[in-house]
Structures are given as C-alpha cells and as structure tokens.
C-alpha cells in the first residue's frame, strides 16, 4: 500500500482490459479525478485503492459513454460500494479518465454478482449492459460468461414461417369448430 500517493499513477490492468485496450498499464491523474468526486472518496489514497482494485479484477467490462472507451465495474471488497473506472486508449496510452465509488444496497449487489444463465445474457446494472435482446451487443463481457463464441441460429426462411402460420391457422380453425 502506498502512503504517499503521487498526482500521476500507473496501474496494472487485468488481462482482459489489457487485451481490449492494447496495453497492460494505464495512467491516471489522481488529483484531477479526486477533485471531480471528492464526496466519493475519503482521500486520494482511497481513490488509488479503488482504481487498483477495479482494474486488477473487474467483474463487468462494458462500453463506456465515451466512444472507444471501456468501463470496468466491481463491488469493492468488505463494503457495500461499487467502484467504476473508465479507461480509453489515447494514441497508444491507456488513460483512466473517470473513477467513482457509489453505495449500493444488498439486493443490487446480489443482482450484480449473480452469474447469468446464457453467454449472451447480461446484467442490467445501471443500464450499462443489455436491458433487452436488442442491446446485447453493448457488453464486452458479462461477469464470468464468455461473449467470444456466437451460437449460430437456424436460418428461418419466409417459407418456414408461412408453414408455421398455416399450421397455427389450421389448429385455430379446429378449436373454433369444437367451440360450436
């Protein structure tokens, strides 16, 4: 643990962040980040510890609001808080441009930490990941599930759906006859 935190710090990134961003380290201007959210951190040391914990082992990695940037999220150990760190690759240098720590209630923690049943399902924590099937592409990684493999679906042609509709209509007409 560092007792004398410098204004600029370099953080080691987890393997997945390093792969996605193209470098294994990221730099942060701690003073600037701390001044953005002094209400969220006890000190610059607290900010340093939060960033370190999140980037070394995030539970969720998704797209950040800023184009081309990533958001790493993790429940902070031994607390009811979650840490968020946003990182972008700026001309070959990974820069941490956002960090915060928020209180969360126990049900939100459980929701965030429950593994999803399918590889494409994603948690909806803070609407940063998918809210419905149309938004599944928003997440790079959902907890410990893998999004690298795509499970191909059978190509359903127009004829396939017309046949299904014909069968449905046939069954529906029989039901109407029974009702009479």
Fold topology:
Blueprint (H helix, E strand, L loop, with lengths): L7 E5 L2 H7 L3 E5 H7 L7 H13 L3 E4 L6 E6 L5 E10 L2 E11 L2 H8 L25 E3 L16 H22 L1
Parallel strand pairs: 2-6
Antiparallel strand pairs: 1-2, 3-4, 3-7, 4-5, 5-6
Major β-sheet strand ordering: 1-2-6-5-4-3-7
Question: Level of helix content?
Answer: 25-40%
**Structural class of the secondary structure composition?**
alpha+beta
The number of helical segments is 5
> On the 0-100 scale, what is the average pLDDT?
74
Radius of gyration, whole Å: 23 Å
Counted beta strands: 7
Broad shape: elongated
Taking the alpha carbons of the first and last residues, their distance comes to 80 Å
Low-confidence stretches: 115-127, 130-136, 138-146
Share in β-strands: 15-25%
What order do the SSEs take from the amino end to the carboxyl end, as H and E? EHEHHEEEEHEH
Taking the sheet with the most strands, its summary is:
7 strands, mixed
